[in-house]
């Protein structure tokens, strides 16, 4: 069952954030061409919006993640939708853990200083999941 992905993805997200906290600093460190590791304490959401509202954002993330868990437990969406929703759920819950536990989200993946906001695995899970949901073939039964 694809829903087993959710706890695995959350664990991967949280371990990556713990490693970032342990080994990274705010100065960009080049890992590969076009990929840097830069520690950021993000108190907002994407693109720095809604900074300073970690509890509200954490509760919203928790509500979204919980609603998706309930939906996945009760509905039988097509397989691709299930995978996509598992990605979104894991991303929402991974960032909720940070917001409610730390008061900020650990971001560390940087595709180039100043080119794009620094992000994390949970953010990536949400983006990939939403893209899968938006694809025309993602709406067909699999």
Automatic annotation (TrEMBL):
Pathway: Protein modification; lipoprotein biosynthesis (signal peptide cleavage). The keyword rRNA processing does not apply. It comes from the Bacteria. Belongs to the peptidase A8 family. It is found in: Cell membrane. It catalyses: Release of signal peptides from bacterial membrane prolipoproteins. Hydrolyzes -Xaa-Yaa-Zaa-|-(S,diacylglyceryl)Cys-, in which Xaa is hydrophobic (preferably Leu), and Yaa (Ala or Ser) and Zaa (Gly or Ala) have small, neutral side chains. One of its GO terms (biological process) is proteolysis. InterPro entries: Peptidase_A8 (IPR001872). GO terms for molecular function: aspartic-type endopeptidase activity. It holds the Pfam family Peptidase_A8. This is Lipoprotein signal peptidase. This protein specifically catalyzes the removal of signal peptides from prolipoproteins. One of its GO terms (cellular component) is plasma membrane. Coiled coil: none annotated. Keywords: Aspartyl protease, Cell membrane, Hydrolase, Membrane, Protease, Transmembrane, Transmembrane helix. The chain crosses the membrane at residues 55-73, 80-97, 117-137. It is a multi-pass membrane protein. Its EC number is 3.4.23.36. The active site is at 107, 123.
């Amino acid at each position: 069952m694809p829903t087993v992905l959710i706890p695995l993805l959350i664990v991967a997200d949280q371990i990556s954030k713990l490693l970032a906290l342990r080994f990274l600093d705010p100065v960009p460190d080049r890992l590969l061409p076009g990929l840097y590791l830069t520690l950021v304490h993000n108190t907002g959401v994407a693109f720095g919006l809604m900074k300073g509202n970690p509890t509200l954002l954490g509760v919203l993330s928790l509500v979204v993640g919980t609603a998706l868990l309930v939906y996945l437990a009760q509905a039988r969406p097509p397989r691709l939708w299930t995978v996509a929703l598992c990605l979104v759920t894991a991303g929402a819950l991974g960032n909720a853990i940070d917001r409610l536990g730390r008061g900020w989200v650990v971001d560390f993946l940087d595709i180039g200083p100043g080119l794009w906001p620094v992000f994390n695995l949970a953010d990536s899970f949400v983006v990939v999941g939403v893209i899968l949901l938006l694809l025309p073939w993602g709406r067909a039964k699999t």
